[in-house]
Amino acid sequence: MEDPIRRALTRHRTKRGTLVVEEPPNEALVLVVKFGIGMTALLCVLEVAHMVIFQSFNSEIFAAITGLSGTITGIFVGQKT
């Protein structure tokens, strides 16, 4: 099975009417996106642990989650256009 992140970042270009050319993403880009998704997941777990242990919301962790999510979304949108 093909990597879903690599498939999502692959560009499809139409040339001469119906011929579709696939441009694979750069390997460094794929690794950065995977790292960003992993870090977002770990920060979500950290935020939940903080809320369970201290019964309070940590705005700094949430800001990091929001920043990483926005960056990853921007990468996907920018790569597809």
- Mean pLDDT equals 91
Strand proportion: 5-15%
Gross geometry: elongated
Please provide the ordered H/E string of secondary-structure elements. Answer: HEEHH
Total of helices: 3
Q: Uncertain regions: pLDDT < 50 for 5+ in a row?
A: none
- Helix/strand structural class: alpha+beta
What percent of the residues sit in helical stretches (DSSP H or I)? 55-70%
Biggest β-sheet description: 2 strands, antiparallel
Cα-atom radius of gyration: 17 Å
How far the N terminus sits from the C terminus, by CA atoms, comes to 25 Å
Task: For the largest sheet, list the strands in their spatial order.
Answer: 1-2
Counting DSSP E segments of at least 2 residues, the number of strands comes to 2
Helix-strand blueprint:
Layout lengths: L3 H6 L1 E5 L3 E5 L3 H28 L4 H22 L1
Antiparallel strand pairs: 1-2
Helix pairs in contact: 2-3
